[in-house]
Amino acid sequence: MSMTHPTALVLHGGAGVLADKGYEAEITHLRTLAERGKAMLSGGASALDVVEAMVRDMEASGLYVAGRGTSPNSAGRYELDASIMEGSTRKAGAVSALEGFISPVGAARAVMEKTPHVLLAGAGAAAFAREQGLERVEDPDAYYTPAAVADDREIATGTVGAVALDSEGRLAAATSTGGTLRKRWGRVGDTPIIGSGTWADERVAVSCTGQGEMFMRANAAADVSARVKYAGARLDDAVRGALDDVGRLGGDGGIIAIDAAGNVSALYNSMGMKRALVHPDGRVEAMVK
């Protein structure tokens, strides 16, 4: 008799929320998206296909600081980053400082599947995306509808991500961002850096959101897996430990993760994190705080 592995899914729409802003639209969207992802996993979809689909939808929604919701950088340009990783093979793809394309995570998956590389950047990434026939942004000023509200933080943030465990026990993670508000032209954060903003292996799948400079300095996403592997940490403890390390560096944000047993985690040290969880028993939660 064939056995089906339990499935699970976690999404985030970015860490850091404002006390005087309502997030009903984002929470409704995340819950709807989580239900869709749950159905995909129940139907046998791969973790990789699910995380890409979830992130593509968040990019297109305009509700988050990723994809359509991106704000221009200090030079008035829209530079976007994304990455995706499949745990059983550790294949990964990423793009950074990509301009002019609807779905950065779609470009990242194309890098993973169509090249021997992991990361393409800037004009080279855009040239590759054109070669692949990926959907373009024809008029940036008309297409982008910045979702971010300015705040007083030196590094104001926004990101989306998804992690999934499928019915064959495979893990995958994907992350996409428009980057920090008012960022310098050419700035790249943790999102496209495998191990810092995104990670998936045979133990865990991880996606990070927050002040990317500190997540890079902590190598936060891969650190979750290392804590599970070498310290035997439970998933929540591993995520909390990695996040505490980011905090010691002065950074805030959040981490979502799933392990191979289907345990889910969504923790943050910021004011809140937009998130939705699909537990192995099918229960769906969506919340900000």
List the helices and strands and how they pair.
Blueprint: E1 8-15, H1 24-42, H2 47-61, E2 80-86, E3 91-98, H3 104-114, E4 119-121, H4 122-131, H5 140-143, E5 160-165, E6 171-177, E7 198-200, E8 204-210, H6 212-218, H7 220-231, H8 235-248, E9 253-259, E10 264-268, E11 273-278, E12 284-287
Helix pairs in contact: 1-2, 2-3, 6-8, 7-8
Overview of the molecule:
The N and C termini lie far apart (42 Å). Helix 1 runs antiparallel to helix 2 (47-61) and helix 7 (220-231) packs across helix 8 (235-248). The protein has helices spanning 24-42, 47-61, 104-114, 122-131, 140-143, 212-218, 220-231, 235-248; strands at 8-15, 80-86, 91-98, 119-121, 160-165, 171-177, 198-200, 204-210, 253-259, 264-268, 273-278, 284-287. The mean pLDDT is 95. The chain has eight helices and twelve strands. It has 289 residues and is of the alpha+beta class.
How many β-strand stretches? 12
This entry's quaternary arrangement is single chain
Distance between the termini: 42 Å
Helix content: 25-40%
| Separate helix tally | 8
Biggest beta-sheet profile: 8 strands, mixed
Main sheet strand line-up: 4-3-2-6-5-1-11-12
- What is the mean predicted local confidence, pLDDT? 95
Computed structural class: alpha+beta
Rounded to an integer in angstroms, the radius of gyration calculated over CA atoms is: 17 Å
